[in-house]
Write a structure and sequence with these properties.
By secondary structure, this protein is of the alpha+beta class. It has helices at about 45-55, 80-85, 90-95, 105-125, 330-335, 335-340, 345-370, 385-395, 400-405; strands at about 5-10, 30-35, 65, 75-80, 130, 140-145, 155-165, 170-175, 180-195, 195-210, 215-220, 220-225, 235-245, 250-255, 265-275, 280-285, 290-300, 300-310, 320, 370-375, 380-385, 410. Strands 3, 6, 7, 8, 9, 10, 11, 12, 13, 14, 15, 16, 17 and 18 form a 14-stranded antiparallel beta sheet that branches. It has a two-stranded antiparallel sheet with strand order 1-20. A hairpin with a 6-residue loop joins strand 12 and strand 13 (about 235-245). Helix 6 runs antiparallel to helix 7.
């Protein structure tokens, strides 16, 4: 299935550095919403909860779930690559950032988009695990501003599994009309402990506004699925950072987990600093509800701006129908497995999933025997040579050094255009 991805280790990709973006082969006019594609959402049944209880009751504490086979009954009907798209679907808020007149307002706009995306983890949580993408698997989609079919403001999305050991997914978003680009490398590590699953998210996201000559470096917090064997719920912990080298603005956003005796949940705090390390704004509130940004210039000059993250709308992603997708695209690749799960034919789902994964193992074995390496169709591999940047990012999020130990990142081929 993926034999055509064998390439010599000598193969390389050199970004152009200038010129027009590479034209996508994906025509947005071919893409349809999930309703138009007749894609149904996963439901949370009593049987699902019973399956969760059976599975987690037999696990050892502090178990790395990446090394554990998940029963097919607990699989979601979509790939992890598509799940990332669902988390980044607040595109009206995203492109609105480019319209802000000053750097502080743009910085707050980035914070709001990041927190709205993290809130989607809670709303998308369906007690099930997405398919692990295979090496070379790709998911493409787009959104139109305001969900207007005639909108000229289109945000395109491409995600690809670019590395199997370690498992790295590369993500790229672009709005050509707004000169906005996002490149992300994401690694996840779920650990089961007690009655919770802790998901550590390693990696980085870079949001670039070409018209403003600004790049925002973003890291990720930890995600906790609590009470997984009874009544699961989601909370965020630790911290994430957002910084812009060009303006000097930065924030370390702290997520407070629920204490054993306390009742308050989902609290979030941050101090927003300028290039002189001075706090120009304090943020507080709930990462799944209301936030306050408090600007204090002196005792007599105090401005409070309030936002409700629940009011930041998500736009409907648009995906080409399966019959015109290529073989390595997520929905086409997992189509038969998804259909078997939909029909609750779990033995068939297991068999079909096993065929896909066996093919990946065979391909990986052949690649090693022939001393070949995988070359991504959409991303190029480049060394992280900015030690200051790597140190800054890894210090803001616990254990993000795991990502920087790789010594390289994957950038989309349109990034340098």
């Amino acid at each position: 299935m993926f034999d055509n991805y064998f390439v010599s280790k000598k193969a390389s990709y050199k970004p152009s550095g200038s010129g027009s973006p590479k034209k996508s082969s994906i025509n947005p006019d071919d893409e349809l919403t999930d309703e138009e594609n007749k894609i149904s959402k996963n439901s949370i049944s009593d049987q699902t909860k019973e399956n969760l209880f059976k599975f987690f009751s037999n696990l050892a504490d502090n178990l790395d779930l990446t090394r554990t086979q998940i029963p097919v009954q607990l699989l979601s009907k979509k790939s992890l690559l598509e799940s990332y798209a669902d988390l980044m679907s607040h595109v009206d808020q995203l492109i609105k950032i480019t319209d802000e007149k000053n750097s502080e307002d743009r910085f707050i706009g980035v914070i709001l988009w990041v927190l709205a995306s993290l809130l989607s983890i809670k709303s998308e949580f369906d007690h099930k695990k997405p398919f692990n993408p295979v090496l070379g698997e790709v998911f493409n989609c787009s959104w139109k501003a305001g969900d207007d079919p005639n909108s000229k403001h289109i945000v395109s999305y491409t995600a690809e599994k670019v590395s199997h050991h370690p498992l790295v997914c590369a993500v790229y978003l672009e709005c050509i009309e707004k000169n906005l680009k996002i490149n992300a490398n994401i690694m996840t590590k779920p650990i089961y402990s007690g009655t919770s699953v802790k998901i550590e998210i390693f990696g980085e996201m870079i949001l670039r506004l070409d018209d403003k000559n600004e790049e925002y470096n973003i890291t990720f917090p930890k995600v906790y699925a609590r009470s997984v064997v009874t009544d699961p719920w989601i909370e965020l912990g630790d911290s994430c950072s957002i910084s812009c080298a060009q303006t000097g603005l930065k924030a370390n956003i702290e997520f407070e987990v629920k204490s054993f005796y306390g009742d308050t949940i989902n609290q979030v705090f941050a101090e927003l600093k300028n290039k002189n390390e001075e706090v120009f704004c304090k943020m507080k509130g709930e990462w799944d509800a209301k936030l306050e940004f408090i600007f204090v210039k002196n005792e007599m000059d105090r401005i409070i701006k309030s936002y409700d993250l629940r009011d930041i709308s998500r736009q409907k992603k648009r995906v080409r129908p399966i019959d015109i997708q290529e073989e390595y695209e997520s929905r086409k690749l997992w189509k038969d497995v998804e259909e078997a799960l939909k029909n609750e034919d779990y033995q068939q789902a297991y068999n079909l999933k096993n065929i896909i994964e066996k093919q990946q193992r065979l391909t990986d074995k052949l690649r090693k025997e022939k001393n070949l390496t995988y070359l991504s169709k959409n991303f190029y591999k480049t060394k992280i040579n900015n030690d200051k940047l790597a140190s800054s990012l890894s210090s803001k999020t616990s254990n993000n050094s795991e990502y920087f130990k790789l010594g390289y990142r994957w950038m989309h081929k349109n990034w340098s255009c």
